[in-house]
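Supplementary Methods, section 5.1.

A reviewer requested that the exact input to the structure prediction be made available. We therefore reproduce it here, unchanged from the version used in the analyses.
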Amino acid sequence: MKLVNSKFKIQNSKLKNLIYWVVLMTLACNRSPVGFDELDRNLTEPVNLELLPKTSACYEKYVRNGISSNLILGKNQEYEARVLLMFPLADSALDSLVSVRLVLKTRRHKNLPFTVHIVQQAWQENGVTWLRNDSLSYWLNPGADYSNTIIGQGSIGTDSTIIMLSYIDSLVRGNGIILLPQDTGFAILYSCETSNDPKIIYKYPKKERTFIASADASIIDTNNLRKERNNLWIGAGYAYHTYLKFAIDTLPDTATITDAQLILYPNKSFFLTDTVEIGVHRLLAPYQEGLTPKFYPNLSAKTRITNVDTLIKINLKDLVQFWSMHRDSNFGFVLNGQPEYSDIFRIELKTDAGNYPRLKFGYILPPKGKF
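The structure derived from this sequence is encoded token-by-token as follows.
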């Protein structure tokens, strides 16, 4: 009996093995050998292209610098920057004042002399520029309407600057003060967006009262800086935008962008700091000369550069891929400073035949299916 059971177990085991191998071979017959699918797909080779812009342009605009953490004061042959300050000053007990002093903290030192004047026209921090006193109204005189009377003067110090102020009655009734540079060069001061706010301090015989700036802004203009029609500039503080459009409409609809680089060649530059950032904004409508274009508020790309760079590369892979999938949205893009209310800088791009801005990119097509 035991021998019969043993034989039965052996036969049962062989049957199980046989079933296992039949099932395994059945499954294997439904699958191609490794690499078989790739033999007849006719894989495409990567395609690399280099394009010059179909159209290009440059335009300039005044910038609202009121939200910057920096206050720029100074001038040279190309720019002038003035500083507006507003304080919530009290007009009580002025007769007992011993002195009134303005305190400014220095971020970047320049032994720059300046004068202080009372502003005569109301202004708003979020809208003031060299031309406008707010988002809707203009100064009567570009560069701000202020009294010619000097209520204080001095030079920017290494860490801080203290200026004694006079004409306090007029100061309290005015619309803040303006600092005017009296020599060439630029200093950078801390604004009220930082912990080193500008201050006015009332000194009484037995106490002091401090007023922190409630609003401030740099207003910036250009002097003797004239852009020619074919110039391509990028700048901040006083803004320059370069517009470029590349004709990628001939790309196959099914193209996958493998890489895309915008290549720029800086020529002449003016920086207040060692490094700056420039960004790319794609347009939402066709560019029209003489009109400020509408562009997507979020950046498509950006890069940081130094004042000694001779080549700028910006990765535009995602943007070119977007355009290849949405052909009707390719209105080009603008290059601008990031942020525009940052320190003054200007980059001039080379536009000669060998160094014109260009777009280098590559793409591949999807593999073809089996016959």
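Confidence is low (pLDDT under 50) at residues 1-10, 22-41. These observations are discussed further in the main text.
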